[in-house]
Amino acid sequence: MSDGEPAGQPQLTKKQKTQQEKREEHIGRIKRTLIACLLGMFVGVLSFYSGGSPDANGLQNNGLLAFMLMLAAIVIQKHVFMIAGINTEKLGGKDWFYQGFMTFALWFMTWAILLSSATAVA
């Protein structure tokens, strides 16, 4: 028995979520992921067009600019979430890491596809 509990009292469990609360949380997670993915693709296209024309190896002169644009997109996400009406106070470090990784992954894939397609055409 613990110090302050009377005998025979069950321990309180976490509040059970209703179907509506679960649905709202799920839709919120989908919105956050969709914003991160769309932002990553947008910045990938922006990186390609702002980086200059790629050479025969598929490299651009301003590759660092593309990376900096991607980092800026990760930082801007919190403000985009606020504009979209998503509560950011509940998000922990793991959530922000996931959002940043999704932006990075879609940025990298979009940028790499555009670089390789531009090299194949040239």
Overall outline: elongated
Whole-angstrom Rg: 22 Å
Provide the succession of SSEs.
Answer: HHH
Share of helix, binned: 55-70%
Q: Tell me the total number of β-strands.
A: 0
Mean pLDDT: 83
Q: What is the count of DSSP helices, taking H or I runs of 4+ residues?
A: 3
Please outline the major beta sheet.
Answer: none
Distance between the termini: 76 Å
Q: Structural class of the secondary structure composition?
A: mainly alpha
Task: Give a description of the structure.
The longest helix is centred in the N-terminal third of the chain and has 32 residues, at 19-50. This protein has helices at 19-50, 63-83, 93-121. Helix 1 (19-50) packs antiparallel against helix 2 and helix 1 (19-50) packs parallel to helix 3 (93-121). The chain is an all-alpha fold. It has a domain at 64-122.
List keywords for this structure.
122 residues, mainly alpha, 0% strand, 3 helices
Structure described in brief:
The protein is mostly helical and 122 residues long.
Topology diagram in text:
Blueprint lengths: L18 H32 L12 H21 L9 H29 L1
Helix pairs in contact: 1-2, 1-3, 2-3
